[in-house]
From TrEMBL:
Name of the molecule in the record: Phosphopantetheine adenylyltransferase
Higher taxonomy: Bacteria, Bacillati, Bacillota, Clostridia, Eubacteriales
Residue span(s) of domain Cytidyltransferase-like: 5-133
Enzyme class: transferase
Function per UniProt: Reversibly transfers an adenylyl group from ATP to 4'-phosphopantetheine, yielding dephospho-CoA (dPCoA) and pyrophosphate.
Subcellular location: Cytoplasm
UniProt entry tagged with the keyword Hydrolase: no
Catalytic activity: (R)-4'-phosphopantetheine + ATP + H(+) = 3'-dephospho-CoA + diphosphate
């Protein structure tokens, strides 16, 4: 079975993330969406909440598993038997960082490949940070996040403003 990992912070998950996950499903038998635990990042949603949001968005995808992990991605991939990491790229600036990460992961786990997927043109500008910024000013993010979690995002943004 070909197993891939789509890692990220997913704070919150966007339609761009779901597009990459959906496209990864066409290539791999099983896709693990790995919510990264990074204590240096100040997230809006807890790790458990981010997992729940992604699970809500992927509930009809039997070949997708949502987990969290803390540690080295290369080690986690080896532990799970994954052969690839799938990363979405929006711009050249993404590539420089992701290329460095791919080389590091390859050094730590020589059996692990990194697959870069170019984002769709309509999602090139989209990031979780942009969604949070727009929502924090009361803007409409319905074109940027899955409809099934829109209310969750609005509730959190409004609660944070109080």
């Amino acid at each position: 079975m070909k197993l891939a990992i789509c890692p990220g912070s997913f704070d919150p998950v966007t339609i761009g993330h779901l597009d990459i996950i959906g496209r990864a499903r066409k290539i791999f038998d099983h896709v693990i969406v790995a919510v990264m635990v990074n204590p240096e990042k100040h997230t809006m949603f807890t790790t458990e909440e981010r997992i729940a949001l992604i699970q809500k968005c992927t509930k009809d995808m039997e070949d997708v598993e949502v987990v969290s992990f803390d540690g080295l991605l290369a080690d986690y991939a080896k532990m799970r038997g994954a052969t690839a990491i799938v990363k979405g790229l929006r711009a050249m600036s993404d590539f420089e960082y992701e290329f460095q990460q791919a080389l590091t992961n390859r050094k730590l786990n020589p059996e692990l490949e990194t697959v870069f997927m170019i984002t769709r043109a309509e999602n090139m500008f989209l990031s979780s940070s942009i969604v949070k910024q727009i929502a924090s000013f009361g803007g409409d993010v319905s074109n940027f996040v899955p409809a099934c979690i829109l209310d969750d995002i609005k509730e959190r943004i409004y609660a944070a403003k109080k």
